[in-house]
Amino acid sequence: MKPFVYITRKLPEEIIQPLQDNFDVEMWYKEDEPVPREVLLNKVEKASALLTMLSEKVDSELLERGKQLKIIANMAVGYDNIDLNVAEEKGVLITNTPDVLTETTADLAFSLILMTARRTIEAASMIQDGKWTSWAPRLLAGVDVHHKTIGIYGMGKIGQAVAHRARGFHMRVLYHNRKRLIKVEQDLGATYVSFQQLLSQSDFVVCLAPLTAETKGIFGIQEFKQMKSSGIFINAARGAIVKEVDLIEALKQREIAGAGLDVFEKEPIDSDNQLLTFPNVVSLPHIGSATEETRRKMMSLCVQNIEAVLTGNKPITLVR
Ligand code: DGY
């Protein structure tokens, strides 16, 4: 019997072809909706491999059911949806999709800076709503990005790619990270600062750290109060790194000037989430790595990792 592979979203046939050639492959039939939990729990019982999205919770209940599981290939660089310790206990390998999405995600993070600072969503809505009546001296005047100070929280590969872009805008680059990165400082002219200094000195605080026990909820009201009142907060990492009620409060109290968010505590966001009511908040539906080219590379990398493990080889991008 061929090993069974279950894919939790509809992916293009030509990308999963290598799996279909060698294994018994099934796929959830919708692209825009996650597989129901019950279906997944059922499928995992006979699966040797799962190809998952970040919307799937890979916890002890699921791992317990997957008695034959050898690998879970998660189609994301982040893997906070997976209980790594239980996976390790059960001998299930976990892979992610680093590198292939670095530049694309940095593009999106930087565009959130530009959109928020230059009020481009408000501007586009004005013209679409037929409300543009005249050129005016201060019509939708935002703030400059060039020559300002950017503070990057989490100087991994995506953080570095954002720093690289910031240099092109002649920005002063500050960063805070678990450890200092001397080579990066030399290459990118970035300066390591404490978390407090990052908050108080930056015009744009950009969160690009992974979600871990250490980073969960690290941006709360005290942190927003330490930011400049003209400061803009950007999050292109994970929603749970921010206490969303505190961000809403900080915006109401004008502790900060705006926010650009690609991620939220709860995704999809509820339509009555107060964040959607602020004109100075740009909200995007978690599209950091969403280009046709990059998403295809991420899918292919998952396919290659599964192929490798099920044929007795080492996966390319092993997390643990
Ligand atoms: C990731 O890869 O972790 C992103 O959030 C989704 O592309």
UniProtKB/TrEMBL annotation:
Its EC number is 1.1.1.-. It is an enzyme of class 1 (oxidoreductase). PROSITE patterns: D_2_HYDROXYACID_DH_1. Residues 5-319 form the D-isomer specific 2-hydroxyacid dehydrogenase catalytic domain. Pfam families: 2-Hacid_dh, 2-Hacid_dh_C. One of its GO terms (molecular function) is oxidoreductase activity. Keywords: Oxidoreductase. Residues 110-288 form the D-isomer specific 2-hydroxyacid dehydrogenase NAD-binding domain. Gene3D superfamilies: NAD(P)-binding Rossmann-like Domain. InterPro entries: D-isomer_2-hydroxyacid_DH, D-isomer_2_OHA_DH_cat_dom, D-isomer_DH_CS1, D-isomer_DH_NAD-bd, NAD(P)-bd_dom_sf. Belongs to the D-isomer specific 2-hydroxyacid dehydrogenase family. PANTHER family: 2-HYDROXYACID DEHYDROGENASE-RELATED (PTHR10996), GLYOXYLATE_HYDROXYPYRUVATE REDUCTASE B (PTHR10996:SF283). This is D-glycerate dehydrogenase. It comes from Bacillus spongiae.
